[in-house]
Amino acid sequence: MPIVDKKNTSEMQEYAQFVRTSPYATATQDPAWAQVKRGWGDAQIYLRRDGSIAAALSLLIRPVGGGFCVLYAPRGPVCDFYDLDTVEALMREADAFAKARHAVLLRFDPEVRYDEALLERYRQRGYRVRAREADPHALFQPRHNMVLDLKGKTEESLLAEFSQKTRYNIRVAARNGITVRFSRDREDLRTFYRIYEVTCTRDRIGARPFDYFERMLDAFGEDCRVYLAEHEGEALSGALAVAYGDKVWYSYGASSNEHRNLMPNYAMQLEMIRWALALGKDRYDFGGVYSLSKDNGLFRFKEGFCRQAGVTEYIGEFDRVYSRPLYFAFEHALPLWRKIRSGGRSTPTEGGNAGV
Question: Residues 319, 107: contact at Cβ < 8 Å?
Fold first, then answer.
């Protein structure tokens, strides 16, 4: 069973290098993500061909009682999801580990656009699929994201793609002297966190603990930044952004209750998009949305930047079931489901789709 020995430095480095350089790379499949997810165990499974790693699956492990657990590969696997034979071979490598750990199921939700024909191919191979018919709030990650295509674009051409209202609000922020800066300083992270707590209280969202964000900074190093939008020295909004693979990911965001009319969030987003452009990234990921109605403020805000691209609909969740009776209980025990899914949180904050 090809599972990474965490004590073997060279093996761990080989695995991490494969994941980080793969065209299918996502931050939540990096081994570093396990450092962020306190309370979950982790394991790294891989498939080797011709002496090299050909596919990878970073698993989070959550006990569910009675000696059983749930395995979850957030935004995995790291390979071509249309290559079902490779995916199936990788999952067979994971099966022995899953059975040894008494797993109820192995769940994964790749960043692949919705494709009904592909879903049917996986159904035919025995996977349980949760897609358009599923309650959006019952999924580990939002299926709908707002993703800005940066390929071949400049700041000027992107501005032309934004909605007229979004461009206007960016100008409002500039006229009112909103400034944006970034750092990795712990004191700036505390400033972000104070605003984040205000956001969670206002929007009735369960808050992550402060050390969760400290672990994000430590896990991703210089590729993780704290952004603060300020007016006359007062921080009005903040964000954590991660540069990984072909994109910059707006993972968490927050805004204060003060001076919202100065439009600090718009200025902050533009600065993070500039970072993505400077790095030569192909995408800027605004994160998930649960409502597709313009009556919803979060959707309206993100859609203004993604007016041309529209909503990105991902394919959904796939379950490899190891115990059908326990799986049925897992699916229908809603309080337990929500506890496992979010550790007591509600839906994601203003920022994005860090999810489980």
Answer: yes
CA atoms of 46 and 53, how far apart (whole Å): 7
- Give the chain as a 3 state SS string: CCECCCCCHHHHHHHHHHHHHCCCCCHHHCCCHHHHCCCCEEEEEEEEECCEEEEEEEEEEEEEECCEEEEEECCCCECCCCCHHHHHHHHHHHHHHHHHCCEEEEEECCCCECCHHHHHHHHHCCCEEECCCCCHHHCCCCCEEEEEECCCCCHHHHHHHCCHHHHHHHHHHHHCCCEEEEECCHHHHHHHHHHHHHHHHHHCCCCCCHHHHHHHHHHHHHHEEEEEEEECCEEEEEEEEEEECCEEEEEEEEECCCCHHHCHHHHHHHHHHHHHHHCCCCEEEEEEECCCCCCCHHHHHHHHHCCCCCEEEECCEEEEECCHHHHHHHHHCHHHHHHHHHCCCCCCCCCCCCCC
Q: Which amino acid is at 211?
A: D
Percent of the chain with pLDDT over 90: 85
What mean pLDDT do residues 262-287 have? 98
**Contact criterion met (CB below 8 Å) for 266 and 230:** no
Give the tens place of pLDDT for each residue, 92-150: 999 999 999 999 999 999 999 999 999 999 999 999 999 999 888 888 999 999 999 99
On whether the CB atoms of residues 217 and 226 are closer than 8 A, the answer is yes
**Rounded to whole angstroms, what are the CA distances from 344 to 11, 208, 321?**
35, 9, 25
